[in-house]
Recover the amino acids of this structure.
């Protein structure tokens, strides 16, 4: 639970003020920079859109001037933003997602493939549609001998080669990979990706780390019912895999559950989970040699603590186009916190609380992705009261600003909650399963993969119908509003 920021209250009643923004005093009144923000679209700011600074400070109610100079300049300028979502017409469970350079979106659909296998649903036309009737979602997993349904479905699209990797875990006993290099028209495999450990809660990623027989190196990690995750690498695109090795320093006892892994432009791999000391903090684990050896890089959680919910082991991590590292986690107060590193995880910025200026009772299911330098998208669930769980998408277009502007949208409208069960965001919950996913397409639009549990656990892509681009500068091309009609 949260109260209105003390800093905001003080700003509105007095000046000068020091400390609330770690800067000198802000002026008492807003100068109207947000007043006409969305008028070009013939509307005003949506009641599911918020412009704010850290600690839920409403940017529309305080001045953007510091000592007479605006902070809303360069990449930190506001853009009109509206949230929405588009259904895939099929159920999902623990949705993972991907996007190719041909603008096709992919998402897993548990049990809806041939012979009850995991479907790989391709949504075409969604990235550039002018009418919601223009996009089509269909299962493209058409293997001659489909792999039996996975306990933990997973899909990942290689950002460097467009290879679509289908990664299935089978009843804790083993895993298989299959892949497509032609947008799902045909599939290769399966090949066995397993080792000596119990196979559960897998994650997989690629990076341009040099590989002997493929353009990228692939690494997967699993919770092996061991004191730490175990990881394996492939240098031939997933055909064969090396031995499972510790995913932390060898003397580390972090617990086995791990957040989604990510590969960076410089070839590094990153994952997030509990720190090696087993205490209250989260760490990011980094490999600079293709997943063979991992080092620990603790996150600045001394002031935030960590959430004591079922998935407390996980912190989420992303890298941008210039190899800056961005981390996201839930604190002890069940609120979302963000920090970045500009030196591959060696040091971290002070964490900021990124929830919007509304009364949220708590948040859960964090996901993060990054595009251009300092351009980040963070997705999470939030309870707006009475176990009304909504999907929130926060974008930061200049994370390195002295006072970054945060733009948050609720992807579902009021009256259209994604879930209403007790403590959903703190537990396994319907189609959310263990985790959700998020990506940024080549045009700079974030896509948040999750489920609409109230609507029947239908898979959805949450996004901004209009908003700031997270690659380069400017505004996204406008998409039509989706919502319940697309379920």
């Amino acid at each position: 639970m949260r109260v209105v920021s003390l800093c905001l209250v003080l700003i509105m009643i007095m000046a000068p003020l020091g400390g609330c923004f770690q800067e000198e005093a802000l002026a008492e009144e807003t100068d109207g920079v947000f007043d006409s923000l969305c008028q070009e679209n013939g509307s005003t700011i949506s009641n599911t859109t918020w412009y704010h600074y850290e600690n839920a400070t409403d940017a529309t109610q305080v001045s953007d001037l510091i000592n007479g100079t605006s902070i809303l300049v360069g990449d930190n300028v506001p853009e009109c933003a509206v949230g929405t979502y588009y259904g895939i017409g099929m159920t999902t469970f623990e949705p993972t997602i991907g996007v190719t350079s041909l603008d096709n979106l992919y998402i897993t659909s548990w049990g809806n493939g041939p012979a009850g296998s995991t479907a790989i649903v391709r949504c075409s036309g969604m990235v550039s549609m002018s009418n919601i009737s223009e996009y089509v979602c269909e299962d493209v997993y058409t293997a001659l001998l489909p792999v039996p349904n996975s306990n933990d479905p997973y899909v990942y699209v290689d950002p460097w080669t467009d290879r679509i990797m289908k990664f299935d875990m089978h009843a804790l006993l083993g895993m298989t990979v299959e892949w497509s290099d032609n947008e799902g028209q045909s599939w290769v495999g399966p090949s066995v990706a397993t080792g000596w450990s119990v196979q559960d809660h897998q994650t997989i990623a690629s990076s341009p780390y040099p590989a002997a027989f493929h353009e990228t190196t692939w690494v997967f990690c699993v919770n092996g019912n061991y004191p730490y995750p175990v990881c394996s690498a492939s240098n031939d695109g997933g055909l064969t895999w090396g031995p499972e090795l510790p995913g932390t320093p060898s003397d580390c006892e972090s617990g086995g559950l791990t957040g989604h892994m990510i590969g960076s432009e410089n070839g590094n791999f990153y994952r997030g989970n509990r720190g090696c000391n087993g205490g209250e903090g989260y760490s990011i684990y980094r490999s600079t040699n293709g997943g063979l050896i991992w080092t620990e890089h603790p996150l600045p959680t001394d002031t935030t603590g960590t959430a004591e919910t079922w998935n407390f082991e996980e912190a989420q991590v992303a890298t941008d186009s210039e190899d800056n590292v961005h981390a996201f986690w839930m604190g002890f107060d069940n609120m979302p916190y963000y920090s970045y590193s500009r030196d591959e995880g060696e040091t971290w910025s002070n964490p900021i609380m990124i929830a919007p200026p509304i009364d949220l009772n708590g948040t859960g299911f964090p996901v993060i992705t990054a595009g251009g330098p300092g351009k980040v998208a963070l997705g999470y669930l939030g309870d707006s009261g009475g176990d009304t769980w909504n999907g929130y998408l926060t974008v930061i277009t200049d994370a390195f600003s002295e006072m970054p502007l945060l733009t948050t949208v609720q992807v579902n409208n009021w009256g259209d909650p994604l879930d209403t069960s007790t403590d959903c965001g703190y537990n396994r919950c319907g189609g959310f399963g263990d985790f959700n996913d998020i990506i940024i397409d080549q045009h700079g639009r974030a896509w948040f993969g999750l489920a609409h549990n109230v609507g029947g656990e239908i898979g959805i892509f949450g996004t901004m119908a209009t908003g700031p681009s997270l690659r380069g500068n400017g505004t996204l091309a406008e998409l039509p509003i989706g919502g319940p009609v697309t379920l």
Observations:
- Confidence is low (pLDDT under 50) at residues 1-30.
- DSSP finds one helix and 32 strands in the chain.
- The longest strand covers residues 82-91.
- Residues 86-359+424-477 form a domain with the Neuraminidase fold (CATH 2.120.10.10).
